[in-house]
Structures are given as structure tokens and as C-alpha cells.
Amino acid sequence: MEDTLLVDALRRGEAPAFETLVRNHGPRLLEMTRRLLRHDDDAARAAVQDAFVLAFDAIEGFDGVELAAWLHDLARSAALLRLPRPLAEEPIDALLPAFLDDGHHVRHPHAWSAPAEAGAPVRDAVDRLPDAFRIVLLLHDGEGLGVSAVARALGLTDNLVKLRLHRARQALRGLLEAHFGREN
Amino acid sequence: MGFDVTCRDFVRFLDDYLAGALATEQVAAFNDHLAACPSCVSYMKTYRETIRLGKLALAPTSEPVPDDIPEDLVRAILQSRK
Ligand SMILES: [Zn+2]
């Protein structure tokens, strides 16, 4: 069913339309909330449910532009609300590059490259980052939000988001070097 | 004559450097450092590759999504409408 027809049916309160909405959009939303909430499947499911409950209530006011994007935003916000707070911020210094007193690298960074299908190991590596860094990376580099949008979503300053993004990318680089550098 | 850029400086401002957010004279100093420092060249290459891989792996559409959603979750969602 076309999204516009579906939205019309939802506004008329037709029960089958609600089920269609959930079956069409639920799987992708669940995949996203599971990624944000990592190993907490109950929370990921609850976030999807939160999003649909909000959507059912708000469908009257929905401007009809992009149903999938609208639901995605609702589910993402719901998932962020269900993250354990404060976000875990264990030190990741061991994964960051080290420098001598004179500012030089302690050791030469190895060159490495990833195979074409590197999605799974990269996601595994991201999952190993503490939430404070992982979530910023997911929102910025995964979801494509800008620094200010990430800052608003997490209640942080732009500068702190930039700092955490930089640290997250450096830490991920360290994990990927350990993973892919060994295979070459 | 620019200021001295160390490897630590280069890495610290790498996001700004890659985003083109540094002032012209800073860029020149960073370029001078890169020209003389294979370690930072290697670091920058693998850092850029990390960002590329991260964006690919984490994009919302990067994984095929199974058509199904747990049946009890569908029921719970539709129940919560009432
Ligand atoms: Zn250097």
C-alpha cells in the first residue's frame, strides 16, 4: 500500500492499517533500536513500541511527507531515552594513539585495509566502545546527524560531541588496526 | 614561517583538517608536517578509512532487514493502541 493511502486509512482509524504500518516499518525500526541499545533486546523492543504508540496518537498531525523518516526519528528518540544514564564513559585511552614527550608517535601506525564486506567486524568493534563514544559515533557517522543535532539529542555541548566523536573514531581505528592489521 | 606542528597536534586537529575547518596558515603548517612525517600520513589514511568503514557499516540501510518482526511485539504494539 502506498504511504499516502496508508496514512489516510490510519487517520480514518482503520484497524488493518495499523497492523500494516507495524509490519511494514517495524523490522527496520527494531534493527535500528537494537543497534542503539546494543545487548538490551527488551529495551529495543520497548522503544519500537513507544514509537508506534506516539505515531498512532500523532498521525492526525503528521504532515505526510516521509512516513519512514518520521517513524525512524520517533523510534530513535525513544531508544535514546531508554539508554542507561549517565552514558558509560570508561576510559578508552588504551585504544588512542600514544605520543612521546616531544609529541611524536610512540610507534608508527600500521597500514591496513579491510576486505570489501567488512560490515560485521566493524559493527562488532563499534559495539566494544563505551556508550558515551559509541552513541555519538552511531548518531553522527551512522545516522548522519550533524554535530549540533547530536548535541541536542544527547544534551551535550557541540564541543563535547566533537571531542567524543574524534575519540570514538580514533578508538575504532585502533580496534580495526588490531583486527584487520593481523589478517594482512 | 609557520609554527611547529607535532604528531600530537596533527592527530588532535585531524577532524578539523579533514573537514577543511582550519585557517590557511594552519593548513600550510599541517601540510608541512605531513610531507615530513610518514607516521602521520599512515595515521591519516587509516583514520579516513575508519570513518568510511564506520559510515558504511552503521548506515541505517546497510543491512538487509528480515521481513518479520516478533509476533508478540506486533500484538503488544497493536494492543497498546486500544
Ligand atoms: Zn607526525
How would you describe this protein?
The complex is a heterodimer of chains A (184) and B (82). Chain A is mainly alpha-helical and 184 residues long. Chain A has 2 domains: 79 residues, RNA polymerase sigma factor, region 2, helix turn helix motif (Rna Polymerase Sigma Factor, Chain: A), CATH 1.10.1740; 90 residues, Winged helix-like DNA-binding domain superfamily/Winged helix DNA-binding domain (Arc Repressor Mutant, subunit A, Orthogonal Bundle). The longest helix of chain B is centred in the middle third of the chain and has 21 residues. The N and C termini of chain B lie far apart (72 Å). Chain B has one domain. Chain B has 82 residues and is mainly alpha-helical. At the A-B interface, α2, α3, α5, α6 and α8 of A face α1, α4 and α5 of B. The site of zinc ion has 6 residues of chain B, from α1 and α4.
Task: Set out the fold topology.
The complex is a heterodimer of chains A (184) and B (82).
Chain A: H1 3-11, H2 15-36, H3 41-58, H4 67-81, H5 119-127, H6 131-142, H7 147-154, H8 158-183
Chain B: H1 7-12, H2 14-18, H3 24-36, H4 38-58, H5 71-79
The structure holds zinc ion.
Instruction: Quickly name the level 1 CATH class of the largest domain in chain A.
Output: Mainly Alpha
Give the oligomeric state of the chains in this entry, treating copies of one chain as homo and distinct chains as hetero. Answer: heterodimer
CATH topology (fold) name of the largest domain in chain A: Arc Repressor Mutant, subunit A
Tell me the domain tally of chain B: 1
Bound molecules: zinc ion
**Level-2 CATH architecture of the largest domain in chain A:** Orthogonal Bundle
N-end to C-end Cα span of chain B: 72 Å
Q: Detail the poorly predicted runs of chain A.
A: none
Number of strands of chain B: 0
CA-based shape of chain B: elongated
Tally of individual helices of chain A: 8
Give the biggest sheet of chain B.
Answer: none
> Could you spell the SSE succession of chain A in H and E letters?
HHHHHHHH
Note the beta-strand portion of chain B.
under 5%
Helix-strand pattern of chain B: HHHHH
